[in-house]
């Protein structure tokens, strides 16, 4: 049976886990990355013909702050070279009223409000940076089965391939159903929203105008996120990734529609802002939950990304929160190493928790408030939210502060 020893072991090869591996390797530490899949470093997404209009159904709306972090790792250049879509405008409106708010990058003197990036492109670019760092060892196609507090303050892992790992610090980046969180005994608060998100890629009659569109309805929000194909002029950029969140009963009805019926229902729900829906790809769906770990850290263990928290996708902030965790945790560990402190101690790791927990809870509270506000059918609440949207739209300073916070700048 093979045994590995590591200063830091990260479990989870998604974008957040890959970013954490890069950040901690850059701190001068030896990192072992354990992934249950076969994805890390084996993508050919950066080499394929990117002009083919076959998009990943899962996309991320990356903030300017996240872009800056990815630039630091060297991943952003590959993302730009492959495929992304900056969005320069955002339009949000109340589908059951008259309230609306519009944002523009020009108002902030920024080139973009954010960037829509396909998840497989994001993962591929980060994986390329992982394999380029000699301080990172990658174990793929093996899952963690047990977590045991070992001797000499080490954490021990038993893997599905029969191997074992002894590590000074264990980082759980293994997603919503984190085995690290469960095996390490972290408690969690969670509840189901009673909604599902239906996602797919569509082609619209009119160009998306590099705008992120979102309509709020009582049944849930509908987002159209712009996608770009290299080589096309702006008038022919008509592909969008859609995230249609709605109450479970309605989602069940949507999922059984054939392509023709779905295009008609989607166009109507979007008020045909971009004309008819001309093409639609295969649909996928997932239930929406909110989860939050009571603590993010123990001695020798930390949680990041969806292993620590998941939120409603209505503002597309989930993965950005995870990248914020990476930046904060790596900063804390780097500072501790430079001072000669025990970076695996709860005393040190709690600095990460104190900062990120308040940030994440603030975003989670905001998303929950938005969901409840726009889910209400009470006339007084509807009047207040529409009045509030229109008032905010008329206050340039308030809009600027709101957008800068959302962009992480």
Question: How is this structure best described in words?
Answer:
The protein is of the alpha+beta class. It has a single domain (3-407), classed as FAD/NAD(P)-binding domain, CATH 3.50.50.60. Helices cover 36% and strands 29% of the residues. It has 12 helices and 20 strands. The chain has helices at residues 15-25, 64-73, 76-82, 105-108, 119-131, 179-183, 248-255, 259-269, 318-339, 346-375, 379-393, 396-407; strands at 3-11, 31-34, 59-62, 85-87, 89-94, 100-104, 114-118, 136-139, 144-149, 155-159, 164-172, 188-204, 211-216, 222-226, 239-247, 277-280, 284-293, 297-298, 301-303, 309-310. Strands 5, 6, 12, 13, 14, 15, 16, 17 and 20 form a 9-stranded mixed sheet that branches. Strands 1, 2, 8, 9, 10, 11, 18 and 19 form an 8-stranded mixed sheet that branches. Strands 3-7-4 form a 3-stranded antiparallel sheet. The N and C termini lie far apart (48 Å). The model has no long low-confidence stretch (mean pLDDT 87).
How is the secondary structure organized here?
Layout: E1 3-11, H1 15-25, E2 31-34, E3 59-62, H2 64-73, H3 76-82, E4 85-87, E5 89-94, E6 100-104, H4 105-108, E7 114-118, H5 119-131, E8 136-139, E9 144-149, E10 155-159, E11 164-172, H6 179-183, E12 188-204, E13 211-216, E14 222-226, E15 239-247, H7 248-255, H8 259-269, E16 277-280, E17 284-293, E18 297-298, E19 301-303, E20 309-310, H9 318-339, H10 346-375, H11 379-393, H12 396-407
Parallel strand pairs: 1-2, 1-11, 2-8, 5-13, 11-19
Antiparallel strand pairs: 3-7, 4-7, 5-6, 9-10, 10-11, 12-15, 12-16, 12-17, 13-14, 14-15, 17-20, 18-19
Helix pairs in contact: 1-5, 1-9, 9-10
């Amino acid at each position: 049976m093979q045994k590995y020893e590591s200063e830091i072991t990260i479990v989870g090869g998604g974008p957040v886990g890959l970013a954490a591996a890069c950040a901690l390797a850059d701190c001068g530490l030896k990192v072992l990355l354990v992934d249950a899949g076969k994805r890390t470093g084996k993508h050919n997404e950066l080499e394929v013909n990117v002009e083919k209009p076959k998009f990943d159904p899962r996309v991320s709306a990356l903030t300017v702050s996240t872009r800056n972090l990815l630039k630091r790792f060297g991943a952003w250049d590959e993302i730009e070279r492959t495929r992304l879509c900056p969005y320069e405008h955002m339009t949000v409106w109340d589908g059951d009223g008259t309230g609306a708010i519009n944002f523009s990058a020009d108002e902030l003197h920024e080139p973009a409000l954010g960037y829509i990036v396909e998840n497989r492109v994001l993962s591929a670019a980060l994986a390329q940076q992982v394999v380029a760092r000699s301080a990172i060892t990658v174990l793929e196609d093996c899952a963690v089965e047990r977590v045991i507090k070992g001797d000499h303050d080490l954490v021990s892992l038993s893997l599905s391939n029969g191997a074992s790992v002894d590590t000074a610090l264990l980082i759980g980046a293994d997603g919503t159903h984190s085995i690290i969180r469960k095996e390490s005994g972290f408690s969690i608060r969670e509840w189901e929203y009673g909604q599902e998100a239906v996602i797919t890629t569509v082609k619209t009659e009119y160009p998306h105008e590099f705008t992120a569109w979102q309509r709020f309805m009582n049944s849930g929000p509908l987002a159209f996120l712009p996608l770009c194909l290299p080589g096309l002029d702006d008038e022919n950029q008509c592909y969008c990734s859609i995230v249609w969140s709605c109450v479970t009963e309605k989602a069940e009805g949507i999922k059984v529609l054939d392509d023709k019926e779905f295009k008609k229902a989607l166009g109507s729900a979007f008020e045909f802002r971009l004309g008819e829906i001309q093409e639609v790809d295969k649909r996928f769906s997932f239930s929406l939950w909110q989860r939050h770990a009571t603590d993010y850290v123990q001695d020798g263990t930390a949680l990041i990304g969806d292993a620590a928290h998941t939120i409603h996708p209505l503002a597309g902030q989930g993965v950005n929160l995870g990248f914020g965790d990476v930046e904060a945790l790596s900063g804390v560990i780097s500072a501790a190493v430079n001072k000669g402190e025990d970076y695996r101690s709860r005393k040190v790791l709690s600095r990460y928790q104190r900062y990120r927990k308040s940030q994440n809870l603030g975003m989670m509270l905001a998303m929950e408030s938005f969901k409840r506000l726009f889910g209400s059918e009470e006339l007084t609440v509807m009047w207040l939210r529409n009045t509030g949207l229109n008032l905010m739209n008329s206050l340039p300073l308030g809009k600027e502060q709101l957008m800068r916070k959302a962009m992480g700048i």
